[in-house]
User: Fold this.
Amino acid sequence: MMRYKGRNILKHSRGNWYARIRFDGKRFAVYGRTQAEAYEKLRILVEKIEVEKQARFLTKAEYMAGTAVLPGISIQQSVQAESRTTKAYTLREWFDEWLNSYKVGHVRAVTVDSFKSDFKYLRKLHDTELGEISNIMLSKAISEVVSNRRKDKVHNLLKQMFSAAFNNRFIESNPALTLPRPKQFAKNEKKAFTAEQEKRFIDICLADLGNYEPFLICLLQGLRKGEMFALRPNDFDFENNILRIDESYDQAYPDDLQTKNDASNRKMPMFELTKKILLKYADNNPKERIYAMSDTTLDKRLNKLFKQNPDLPRLTAHELRHTFISRCHEKRIDEIIVQKWVGHAIGSRMTKAVYTHVSDDAERRYIELLNRK
Assistant:
């Protein structure tokens, strides 16, 4: 077995290689098509974490005075580190540094590309030094973005970038700290079926499972599209009625099977109708995806369904997940249970503490509620 500094590189049942490491209360994972690729990604991740640990030994006074020597590295390396903390980054330079230090290797490749796309909308500020950027300049940059959804994504990017810059003392104050969330986007409501529309949608899908089964699974279990695409027979525990979610598939990044975040890796109840549908896959190759189709094929089938049933509001595959969450709220299922089922991160430490102590009896009662379609 290949190892790096005590961390094992294991072969997944899916055939790829992976390694996991915990730091600062979070779990990070790396994946590779080969053991060597996973080893190299693990090495980079561990080195980044070790640098972060070493940097935390330095006091603010040592940073400002430039007299600190990082434990375990040479004086020359320490001088280079001190020089880096006083570097006057432009927004473009800091974005590259932030992305490679905090995101690459920590989040999915599709998420990294999404950040790059969002950053293009800040091109007017790309060559401006961080310390010269004000709250007003950031607000103006966001206001110039046309799409409401993109405004929200750019806002989120700025919040993360400037928080990291401030924590690393590259700027004296954080201009994004009081940056308000774009109001227009905040007013947009998430689309979902009503209970009556949901029942009709289920009936339509059941009548043509050959075409519409993937949508039914997303709706019944509240899955993200990538989580549905990644389902394999060895994710199904029919004896205990459990569905395991620990991968997400995107055809643009077929080797990157990481889920959206730590909370996305979960075990959730397999509801009765889901079990009836999935039982036919019990004897299939346990490592092969059961919905091996393209995004284009999926979209065409969903468009066909709505075209043939104009009385139903048009939803995306992801909005079927919103419908699941809406039904849970309508049936007064505890927020913590819903977050656990759909893989949402728990908001506060107190909520997290309560979440870990949810009783099995309470969860069983909620499962019965969802099974009553």
In short: The chain has a mean pLDDT of 83. Residues 247 and 258 are 5 Å apart (CA to CA). DSSP finds 17 helices and eight strands in the chain.
